[in-house]
Amino acid sequence: MEKLKSTTVVAISHQGQVAIGADGQATLGNTVAKSSVNKIRKLQGGKIVTGFAGSTADAFTLLEKFEEKLGKYSNNMKRAAVELAKEWRTDRMLSKLEAMMIIADITDVLIISGTGDVIEPDLGIATIGSGSMYAQSAARALKKYAPQLSAEEMVKESLNIAADICIYTNHNLIIERVSE
């Protein structure tokens, strides 16, 4: 049975602002299953924002685990991310999950994967999903050549560029800013 998946998620830290956004497309094989999926979740009143790509059910499982880790480690986002990545890699059930996450607070942007990776990306740009390389290229160019834009504007434009190129990404965007 095919899994519901595919998307583009972008997080950008720029000039003291952090924004994260995703398109709304979910595909089942090579068919659009839904065009308005919300892949962005705010935690702790918006102080931490997450985005996910991959199997939706798997992503929700990981989101719940991440929230557990946040509670266990006094809302220390980096520590919770590392502990989630360790458990994801070593736990028999979790290791089968097919998803990736971006998590961000006002100071850090991280990518978490099931291989045990917790990556703090270069230039404050994190991208995951089918259109991630298109969005990353656009975000890098925007940061370099249009630094007057806000983080939120850069996320929006990066996602729109990815949607113009990637067949698994659409223009139904949800973008959130991280609160202080």
TrEMBL record:
Belongs to the peptidase T1B family. HslV subfamily. GO terms for biological process: proteolysis. This is ATP-dependent protease subunit HslV. The active site is at 7. A double ring-shaped homohexamer of HslV is capped on each side by a ring-shaped HslU homohexamer. The assembly of the HslU/HslV complex is dependent on binding of ATP. Na(+) binds at residues 163, 166, 169. It holds the Pfam family Proteasome. Transmembrane segments: none annotated. It is an enzyme of class 3 (hydrolase). Its main location: cytoplasm. Allosterically activated by HslU binding. Keywords: Allosteric enzyme, Cytoplasm, Hydrolase, Metal-binding, Protease, Sodium, Threonine protease. Protease subunit of a proteasome-like degradation complex believed to be a general protein degrading machinery. It comes from Cyclobacterium plantarum.
